[in-house]
Amino acid sequence: MANYVTGFCRNKVIQVDLNGTFHCAKVVGAHFKERGTGSFVITASMSGHIANFPQEQTSYNVAKAGCIHLARSLANEWRDFARVNSISPGYIDTGLSDFVDEKTQKLWKSMIPMGRDGMAKELKGAYMYLASDASTYTTGADLVIDGGYTCR
């Protein structure tokens, strides 16, 4: 629970996931403004849309919700020279969750309508679309790629 997470851990998650994204945007935005064009794609998470279960990860959820809103806000601020969007992956089989016990991982999969974790390669098309000229009329959007998890 949020009450039991140490201030250091809570701040570290927010520093890396939200503030790190903000600092990257600041540098990239200046470059885009100078060039007069650009497309910035932020990696958020389905966890920015939900309160995960059974794991309690308030700091992560808050940071990723912040990333989604950062993308929307920057899309408005940078409207004259760049597009900004975010992608919110669900559970993706990258190995980052291998430390989670098998029982919890089975529970997660049971909550995904497609019945499985996503594969990293399944995100590639979304990133390519948002970074390319195929999406020149797309800004401020968040693309959720989660096998249907958030529709339940």
From TrEMBL:
Pfam families linked: adh_short_C2
Keywords (A to Z) from UniProt: Oxidoreductase
Family: Belongs to the short-chain dehydrogenases/reductases (SDR) family.
Name of the protein this chain belongs to: Putative NADP-dependent mannitol dehydrogenase
Domain of life: Eukaryota
GO molecular function, one term: oxidoreductase activity, acting on NAD(P)H, oxygen as acceptor
Oxidoreductase among keywords: yes
